[in-house]
Amino acid sequence: MSLPQCKIGAAAEPESSVLVFGCQSVRIASNQAHGGVRLGESNIVSLPSNGPNCAHPGIFRLPLGLLFFIAIACPISSVAAGPPIGENAYCGVGDVAKFGQKDGVAQLPLSCYYTGLDGTLSPGKQIRLGASSDLSAALDSAKCGDTILLAAGASFDIKELPAKKCDDRHYITIRTDTPDSKLPPEGTRISPAWAGVASLPGRPAYAQPPGGPAKLVATLLVKTPSGVTLGDHYRFIGLEWVGEPNPRATRLATTEGADHIIFDRNWIHPAEGVEMRNGIRMIHGTRFIAVINSYLGGFYCVARTGACTDASALGGGNGELPVSTLKIYNNFIEASGENILFGGAASEVNPTDIEIRRNHLFKPLLWKEGEPGYTPAGSGNPVVVKNHFELKSGIRVLFEANLLENCWGGFTQTGFSILLTPKSQSDMCPKCEVTDVTVRYNRIRNVAGVIQVGNGLSKAGGATTDGGRDSIHDLLADAIHDQDWKGLGAFAIVGSIAPVLHDIAFDHITVFGTGPIFYIGNRNAKVPNFSVTNSLFMAGGRQAEFASSGGGEANCAHKTQWAGAAAVLDACFVNYKFEKNLIIGSKGGWPPGTITVSSPEAAGVRDFKDGASKDARLCHAKTPGCRKASPGASAATDGKDIGADVDAIEAAIAGVE
Q: What is the pTM of this model?
């Protein structure tokens, strides 16, 4: 992408070298004088990950003893309004929520957890523990505000952390004794390299300490199969959490009844070769829990012969006491079942106010049969794979700027990445609902389906309370598989049995699918307030682009699917909107105003090959890589390009992988 042309002005102030600007990249000419100061050769300054956005400030430094104010004017067409990327972008000191009120039809979270070190202080004494020390005794004697320093490279047994009744200015910090200068800076993700592990097979390359892999963290060896229980006001920094090699182990930690717990820069995993159902389980009275800047992996269950059937790294939300204000930020998260799952058990409550941002949700292809390096379990069976992110219960959830990679079918699921599907598991959660969910600025690749939204029944026939008010926009998905990955190759399944699904909005979506765009399943009342706007879809296969998900004539889409999308929309939805969409590979029957083309090239997609897009932006003119302007260029209802805002997504997820 070409950089915006910017006009620069400067004014000097003494005693600083901080420059504030708002373009993605600015080259200051060699030896050009500004405000009486001569700048050095080829000074290049750039926003870390939010550009190109002339309205968004970036901060950088030059080796000057002066402060400059840089005034930059960029063309309006260069601006990409992406979300903020900071750890506490939506939360001020004192847990002051700054999410805003709504995103389209969805209410945004009402509460937040400020996790900066400046607002979660440990001003007390320091307690140093050597390799042979008793951590439990140290915890019993520790006072609110103390810091316990654990010897790097040493292992400490842990079963529980007692409640201390501390306050927000007196956290108990438990951390490695490695100095901060040798740890990732605050707000930066740690990796197993800080435990001396240079790489993990089949996983993406990760950050390394200066000087290479070294044992710079301390290890907490979880000594109870049901997981460590936590009290209140604990912060963990630079630790490795690992379970014993116990086949009965079910989780590493549970936050039942806990509040104000921060896992910051931790490596969290089961023992090598041991199945484990959960990493951190947030249930029954949990409040203010954060998992940030950490690496969670190795959670899996084996098909047919395994000790468990459904592994997730993070989640919960169940119980009889409220669960609220949860933060999952800037982590690598790996699990075979669901990387993140809320709901799915008996409950009288729904988890509320959940922030999930800038995480890499990943499943290694070493778990997929037929892939190079596939490694079955000792029994010869594969691990059970389901989804990346699933809500069976949840209210006011922000899922923003995440990268979701590798998901396939073959078990009880068909490889869909995201599920927003309330469920009364075993008829023991009739109060469950999934409402007010915002999914924005996310990237999905290498999956067998993108998203499911729907209200269904449990296997026993029980319904939930509600499902709806979901705002899904600026989502980019490609490398979508179908039968070869035991999936459907579809963008979405939308289903409504009971209660009636309502208020679902898809806007500015770009998806290159290999099957139908939508599978529709509705055997009851029409779904109200369903909208699909400003989106680019590619369909494939022999099925209709709006296809029936099954159920015979009872399904509203059964008879209408071959008449086209307009007929299905009329039959299944009320007060719906389908406007300004660009369809690749159309079979016809679309609502008026739909743009249809025969190929990605005809759609003006810059770079699409073999199911994947290196550059999904639309062409605006005949330029290198573009034969002509796209019919979707500047054609959306808001004057933007049809499809996802690729610039904003790339800025949002920069550094996530």
A: 0.89
